[in-house]
Amino acid sequence: MNEIVVDVMYVSDRLIIIKLKIDPVRVLNLIQCYAPQTGCDDQEKQNFEELLEDKSQDPNTLVMGDLNAQVGHNRYGYEEILGVHGWGSRNAEGENLLD
């Protein structure tokens, strides 16, 4: 198992990155995150979004965790990135996430 884990990086209280060697030449970056809640300060949300965007530039990156966003069931305009199992309606954080 240790041969698979290349690196573990603490980025912030809301973000950690684990680099996994998935074959002899490719590395997968797993980003585990916990986004600020809906009621948090807008600046805190913006700082988190900027940090996440900066750290997820590599195409071999998978972002997972609690993004504190509701994307809802409407896929119109987001068919390429949003699956069919959404529920409810989209909130402002969901709009930000999809954009």
Automatic annotation (TrEMBL):
Transmembrane segments: none annotated. InterPro entries: Endo/exonu/phosph_ase_sf, Swc5/CFDP1/2. Gene3D superfamilies: Endonuclease/exonuclease/phosphatase. PANTHER family: BUCENTAUR RELATED, CRANIOFACIAL DEVELOPMENT PROTEIN 2-LIKE. This is Craniofacial development protein 2-like. It comes from Cacopsylla melanoneura.
